[in-house]
Amino acid sequence: MFDNLTNRFSDVFRQISGKGKIREQDLDEVLRDVRMALLEADVNVGVAGNLLRRVRERALGSEVQQSLTPGQQIIKVVNEELIQTLGSDTAELAKPTKPPLIISMVGLQGSGKTTSAGKLAKQLKDAGKRPILVAADLQRPAAIEQLIVLGERVGVPVYSEQKSKPARLVKAALKEADRMGNDVVIIDTAGRLQIDKELMDELADVSKVAQPDETLLVVDAMTGQVAVDVAQGFLDRIRVTGIVMSKLDGDARGGAAISVREVTGCPIKFAGVGEGLDQFEVFHPERMASRILGMGDVLTLIEKAETAFDEEEAERTAEKMARNEFDLDDFLDQMSKLRKMGPLKQLLGMIPGASAALAGADVDEADLSRVEAIIRSMTAAERSNPNLIDKSRKQRIARGSGSTTQAVTALLKQFGQAKQMMSAVMSGGAMPSLEALQNPGAFGGGVATKQRPVQTGPVRGQNRVKGKKKKKK
Amino acid sequence: MNTGEILGVVVASVLLLIVVGVFFIRRPGREETSLVVDRPAPAVSLSSRLAKTRNALSGRLSGLFGGPLNDAFWDQLEETLIAADIGPVTSARIVDQVKASKPVDGQAARTSLRDEMVAGLTGPDRSFHMTTRPSVILVVGVNGTGKTTSIAKLARRLQHEEKRVVLGAADTFRAGAIDQLRMWADRLGVEFVDAETGADPASVAYRAIERARATDADVVIVDTAGRLHNNKNLMEQLAKVVRVLEREAGEIDNVMLVVDATTGQNGIVQAEAFVGVAPVNGIILTKMDGTAKGGVVAAIEHETGVPVRFIGVGESMDDLVPFEPAAFVDALLD
Q1: Considering CB atoms only, which of A69, A233, A309 is closest to B25?
Q2: Residues B274, B302: contact at Cβ < 8 Å?
Q3: Model's pTM, two decimal places?
Q4: Are A318 and B8 inside 8 Å of each other by CB?
């Protein structure tokens, strides 16, 4: 959904990831790019300005400057501000003290109110509710017919009157719902411009009569700068309680979500993600923000990592790596934890850039088991000191693991090189470029691949993912 | 993959995870700097802050051109253009062009700006093509832009020009779309080619041309379902409609892309995608009676060369008027 913006951010932040202290001049340059990305994504120019001001203040504050990884810190700040603007709560529908739950769908013409009403009715019906749809759009020709057809498709009754006034119709519909024992009433109102006084008066009347528990403003994901005016216009006349972002299955960057959210302060409760009537989802602000930031599924990854590794252990492992003491036992341990987190391929896909850089690294879980088997066939002494492993030990290990001595040799050689690299990375260098990771030769002495020097210094520019300086206690 | 390579990938993964883990997990005061922020957004203050921004934005151009030509002036000018959905890149380019014209004061800058923008929109032929008989108008666009309403307005215009019009209901997907077009046809008193929901749109288009021939009509307007331009199947379906119409009519005189004025920068991608599957040669810019300026069409014209032909300016059937670059730019800078 927010892919394009995500790409932009990836580009921008690749330039600063891991740079040392942030100079004001660098920051301005970066924020200019961030602004450009936000504006291209249709975030309102005023909203973008506010967001960047908040980021800038924090970026120049001690929180970032005192951090050992200011580049990372800025990413976090931008991400946090985006999440905060998008809203961090996965919002649920209101629960009225006494049924029915009355929901009113409002918005501009063509924003997707009627379709969203149908989708919402289906979702609530599937959840065991007894909704009724109310065709209160008396403006657009055949709007009533559209809702009736949708009602038939999802198996929900539709209340309609051919010649009426919306307020009167809604009053009658509420009576009908009461009589029929419907516990949810979904009112589909006519599309209207927020500056159309007559129609906005009419909407205010409907709201007065209906007293909705939820008034959902339906916003097209493709909306540009005007999203702010629209939201404000509706907010000025009626109490809006939530947003529905429609047409998110398009490729619009969807900055309107940020704009509308900031103006209304209302949570984005649902997202329309397809033509099908079941393609209606709960909106997830954190996921969206992390996508915007080019963080991929890093958040999910972190969650998974948090369950598999604890802080102290991660720290111990890092120290071990730094002191070049990371042995095969540790490796085995890490590997089994890694595998508990899910298929390796899936994990790699969550690391921004990694999936592309490691493309072709078609990791078969069975291959992982083979590596594990080889290490498990070693004695404890061999695992902590692989130098012990001579030819006859290799033969024994190969037999024990059902592999070949060549495989054992290759593994040991790779591990030795990898260990050196880990040490270099953890003791003050930087992450090797992903390009280097992609080429197994980068670990030195790759079997059938060309040699590449292990990078120990800071890596410039394009290919790096994360810069990590050793954290001193 | 050999064992060594696998090891490489695993080591890379472990390393990445450790780095990610160490960086994100072991951080003192994690609650405050955690990526996942739990506190709710302060709705009131945000909203009021933005209201200020908004008020500052609206109507400030009039004051702007009276002021001095300083950095603030150029920044505000750029923001105004961006606020009209012209897009950040094009806006920056336009501002640079105005700067390069070395205006002496605000008024000169305004004149220069207006001229630049009008020049950018001038050139393409905006007249309506009528080469075949019946002449075919195919109307396409994403969902909710106002295709069906625009068709009614187009039919009305053509009626005023004494043309006999047939409407073909080839939006067989959206519930109620066929009824909607039929109601317009009844109100206008024009020929209507009906369809069943779910029918093949290409066959409806074919029948519409047949009907036009049988009734000796001048123009046949074919409605299509709204489709997101990145939906491959639906775009292929549209390509089929185009093929059938081209086969039957020889040429589709006018393929009109309907663009909603509230659309942001995605409008460019939309236009490019539709131009890719249909010989789009005109744009109808709808909903210009709202506060949206529709600035994205400037970029669309620039990128695709497809001119805006009409703009929709209201709810009534007569609210479709020819696009005039100068008037459009003036409204945009208003």
Answers
A1: A309
A2: no
A3: 0.72
A4: no
